[in-house]
Amino acid sequence: MRMNSLLRESIAETIVKREMLVFPVFVVKGSGIRREIPSMPGIFQFSPDVLIPEMQSWIDLGITRFLLFGAGEEKTLNAHRACSADSIVNIAVQRIKNIYGTKVFIITDVCLCAYTSHGHCGMVDGEMIVNDTSVELLANMALSHAKAGADMVAPSDMMDGRIGKIREALDGEGFSDLPIMSYSVKYASAYYGPFRDAADSAPGFGDRRTYQMDPRNGREALREALLDEKEGADILMVKPALAYLDVLSQLRKVTNLPLACYNVSAEYSMVKAGAMKGWIDEERIVMENFTAFARAGADIIISYHSLEAIKNHWL
Fold first, then answer.
1. Residue 199 has pLDDT above 80, yes or no
2. Amino acid 103: pLDDT
3. What letter does residue 298 receive in the DSSP assignment?
4. What is the C-alpha to C-alpha distance for residues 107 and 112, in angstroms, rounded to an integer?
5. If you average pLDDT over residues 94-109, what whole number do you get?
6. Which of 51, 144, 156, 275 suits 225 as a labelling partner, its CA being 20 to 30 A distant?
């Protein structure tokens, strides 16, 4: 059954399609900026004026699904720039949708860490995260993204109750058709290191273990995800991907919602480093990873390798 390549293709149980891939993009304030992130070779920060023509080249390749992160905003204790109509994310979304319209699908990350002076994903009182105040701000942030033209919002903060509050805010302003992709299972992981360079979002004190999930827990992940489903999430996400394939697989068994996984920055950078050293075959490793994500149950794969995979015809 394995001897003939045509037969192998016919009976392959898992197929990864380019339509499953989402490419994360970092947009920063300023002009003329195309700045490579040192810890993530091949990944750049873009100012909106540079991002727009760059995006055309991606669309021409067939890359049409993007997850936008903002960086370089003024950081304050109350994260006021996160909800501003003229935040860098909202400016980028407006320009992208004005030019490309329905040719692209724009997802926006909804979190406060890149906008707070302390770098945490919510409001603080001393060194304590204040959940309910944070949830109100996150709902306002998501609503501002919807008004700018985002096709989907993706809250990544892990505050309790934020999906219900965001759904309520969106519905109340006429955005009842706008989907929510919830970072439902987001672990307090060491795999985010390079991302914090890209988004300038490292916490100024402590860590995020009081609100992101303990890597030792699996059953808790199912509780978190099913709560988000009950509050109105349309897609559930597991992050990181590689170290939590068991969680992704278990979640697939208990929900009928679409599932996403985030192939995060350190997972990308480790593969890149190994490939640059000549130690591994990048294409085979990337496609094996993508296949593992899909086999475990992912319908959507968010990956920094999306651009290369499509550009180089790896799938």
1. no
2. 97
3. -
4. 16
5. 97
6. 144
Q: Quick check: is 1 in a domain?
A: no
Q: Which domain holds residue 200?
A: 15-311
Q: Is 182 helix (H, G, I), strand (E, B) or coil?
A: strand
Q: What is the pLDDT of residues 112-168, one digit of tens each?
A: 888 887 777 887 887 788 889 999 999 999 999 999 999 999 999 988 999 999 999
Is the model's pLDDT at 8 over the cut of 90? yes
128 contacts 66 by C-beta, under 8 angstroms: no
If you average pLDDT over residues 95-121, what whole number do you get? Answer: 91
Locate tokens 């109105």: which residue?
232
Per-residue tokens: 214: 């303990």
What CATH number does the domain containing 123 carry? 3.20.20.70
Please say if 17 is a catalytic residue. Answer: no
pLDDT at 102 (0 to 100): 96
Residue 104 lies in a domain: yes
Q: How many CB atoms lie under 10 A from the CB of residue 1?
A: 7
Q: Please state whether the peptide bond connecting residue 215 to the residue before it is cis, i.e. omega within 30 degrees of 0.
A: no
Active site annotation includes 75 = no
Structure-token pair, residue 220:
């808790």
Q: Are 58 and 100 in contact (CB under 8 A)?
A: no
Identify the helix (H) or strand (E) that includes residue 136.
helix 131-148
Q: How far are the Cα atoms of 6, 9, 24, 267, 289 from residue 109, in angstroms, in the given order? A: 41, 36, 10, 19, 23
Q: Which of 239, 253, 277, 311 is catalytic?
A: 239
Q: Number of structural domains, the chain? A: 1
Residue 4 lies in a domain: no
**Residues 97, 186, 277, 311: which is the catalytic one?**
186
Listed residue (278, 285, 292) closest to 308, CA to CA: 285
Q: How confident is residue 204, by pLDDT bands cut at 50, 70 and 90?
A: low
pLDDT at 205: 67
